[in-house]
Design brief:
With 559 residues, this protein is an alpha+beta fold. Among the domains are: 157-216 and 318-409, no CATH class; 219-311, no CATH class; 448-555, 3-Layer(bba) Sandwich (Glucose Oxidase, domain 1), CATH 3.50.30. 50% of the residues lie in helices and 10% in strands. The protein has 22 helices and 14 strands. The chain has helices spanning 15-18, 25-40, 43-49, 67-73, 84-87, 103-116, 118-121, 126-147, 157-169, 171-199, 208-211, 219-234, 238-247, 253-258, 263-275, 295-306, 320-329, 337-386, 398-405, 411-430, 515-523, 534-537, and strands at residues 9-11, 56-59, 62-66, 437-439, 442-443, 448-450, 453-455, 457-460, 463-470, 485-488, 504-507, 527-529, 543-547, 552-555. The strands form two sheets. A nine-stranded mixed β-sheet has the order 6-7-14-13-9-10-11-12-8, covered by helices on one side. Strand 2 (56-59) and strand 3 form a beta hairpin. Helix 9 (157-169) runs antiparallel to helix 18. The termini are far apart.
Length: 559
Amino acid sequence: MNPNSSPVIWTRRFVGERWAFPITPLSESIFLRHFVGDFLDSPDFSQELGGSEPPVRTYRGYPYMNATMFMSLLPRLGLPVIPEFFLDLFPSSAYPTEHTFSSRAWWILMKTLWQKRFWRLIELRPLANCQQWRLFVPQYVRQIRHLHPRCVETLDGPAIAQRLESAISLLFPYRRIHIGSLGLANFLYMLAEFLLSSLSPQGTDVTCAELAQPNSWTPTLVVNQVLAEIGEQMRHYPQLHAEAEVLNRRGVGQLLRQQPEHPIVKRFREFLRLHGHRSDNSYDLMAPCWREAPEIPFRRILGYANAPAASWSVLPPLSSSERRQWLEAAGGPLTRRGIFKLLRAVLDHLADYLVLREEQRYYFELHVEVIKSLVHRAGIALQHSYGVSEHSPHFLSFSDLIFALTRKAPSDHVIAQVTQNAALHAQNEALPPPPTFLRGDEPWADFDSAMGGWRGLGISRGRVIGPAVVIEDPRRLPPLTGKEILVVRGLDPGWTALFPAVAGIVMELGGMLSHGALAAREHGIPAVSGIEGVTRKITTGQLIEVDGHTGRVSLRQGH
């Protein structure tokens, strides 16, 4: 079917949170096609439910999911309520209004589940999922580190190809547990919302989002807290602080070499040793890790050092007893003890999964760092063999890269592919990002704009007024004072290191359980997501008001 005439609706939600920038052919073939696409790919789904279109595609370099596939299936399953996670994939103007039972829809679903052997692809048992992850991590980390190119002195093209194939194959056992954790977390959140509304039908002062918080320190919180503490410590060394401000414009390598024994430098080196595998764009293989680009986390440290000490804080995890006190304050348990106990159990289990999700992303970034290192070595090998740039692997698909490394691809073919794909990627980067929804290749506007404001999804309660700072690339970050409101397309966990130095957050993409939403609630920062094109509607310096409860973002007078 010609996509220009296709009735299929495409969405950037969910996948767009992971790729806020144009995706390279290598990242697309590894993560989007194999890691996400093959999970949903099915002839029956595509032909009968997805408008004969694939489950994922790219448009101007940005990934999209086939929303029509879910819009055609879910209303025909006879479910009383469609889970909110799936509703978030639809344009609000296209929400299904009729729910019917279709034996054909169930047949397609069951047939696909059987063909895909979903019980092997996803670990969906609530208790086994957590246990499997705890057992999986030590072996997973050991295998990842063994594949790192620094473990051997020399690697030729075929050896690099073999290690890359092994590294990619390790993504699938990780995916089995991670997708199960995502599904269970969303199911538990939906169940908690239902029980909370049953506990107090008239509404309560506490929301499910406030109760759905990790019950222990997540890796993301730990990383952000360490950066903030180093920034606080730097206040006590004004001379080093002044030198760092100057050197930061040329990179921090000189500072690290000049004063290796300084307490700040030693602590920052230790930070990079432990957490330097993190990145501001985990799924983009071209995005440098913090270890490769230490100026990125160092700018965060300077931001905390320059901001007023009282302007940032990291809230401690919400314990089970504190969660119970919040619920009792709502008044529900006085009349509905059974629902109250069940809600407490669901929220405690949900809190475990929220910690699990952040842990999984943290170790996934360790995995991606190894893949990036192998891709870098592959670039050097291709440079010697074909005379192309060392960045050339990013502009080949994974299969084409393997062929090139094993010298099975003709030189003119490799050079032509790299040249063409690199030019197309540069062209996509120069264009503004496409809309959240498409019908075929045509934009589908789906946002509320009136009276100088916009309405999205409130993901972290609170209200704040401040100057907007529109950020397209976290590597080009202006100085922050703790009063600014961050306006971004989407947030990777690495971006959340900025949170202690901002007053509010507005995002184009991100759901209630996204990494950005969880981190915003953990930092007590008002936040709104799901506002189409907000990075183009608001400009840096404009005074805006963010209401994280109603999801309203408004322009205010003044600067």
